[in-house]
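Support request, please re-run this one:
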Amino acid sequence: MSTYAHGPRLVKGAIIVIDPVSQQRQNIAFQYNPDTLKRSLQPQVLGGEQGQASQAVRFTGAPVETINLDVIIDATDQLEQGQTQAAQTGIYPQLATLELLLYPGSRQVTQNNSLLDQGTLEIGPYVAPLTLFSWGSNRVLPVSLTSFSINEEVFDSQLNPIRATLSLGLRALSYSDLDPGHPGYNLFLAYQQAKEAMARRR
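Re-run finished. Output below.
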C-alpha cells in the first residue's frame, strides 16, 4: 500500500466462491498479491494443418487459458499484534478455506450416504461451487482449480503453520465449457468483452 495519505488504494487479488445452493458469496482475498502471474492461452482451431492450404482456419471456441500463481500466507504480523486467532491456530483457517475448494461439502456427502441407505441406486456427482478468479476489475473469470500444492514453512509450538506458500493452478471456464444458463457463461463473456475494450484503447 502507498506510504502517503492520498496514494492509490491497493486492490487485492482474490478467489471468490459462490455456493451452488444458497448463492452465498465468499471472498478469499490474498494477504499479499503475488509478484508474478503466469498465463497460458492455447487456441482452439480447425484447419491450417500442413497440406490443407485451401481450408480456412476456424475457431472452435475460446482458447484454453491456464493461470499459475504462488500465494504467500503469513501470520507473523498478527502474532506480533497479539491477535488471539493467530496465536491459537496460526494460518490454518486460511489454508483450510482454500483447501475446501477441492472437497465436496460434508453435508452433500452425508445426504448422499443417507439416500444410498434408503435404497437409492444412483447418486449424481457432487455439485461444485462457482469459483471465480479476481485480478482487478477487468479480470474476473470463472475457473476450476486444477492443481494445489502447499509448502508450510514455519510452525508454532502446537505445530500450527505460521507461514506457507501456496502454488495454485487454475483453468478458465469459458462459454465453450459452460451451458448458456450457467452464471459463469456470461461472466466469461464479460471477461472477453473487457479484453476487446482494452485492445481498442491501445
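The mean pLDDT is 89. The longest strand covers residues 140-155.
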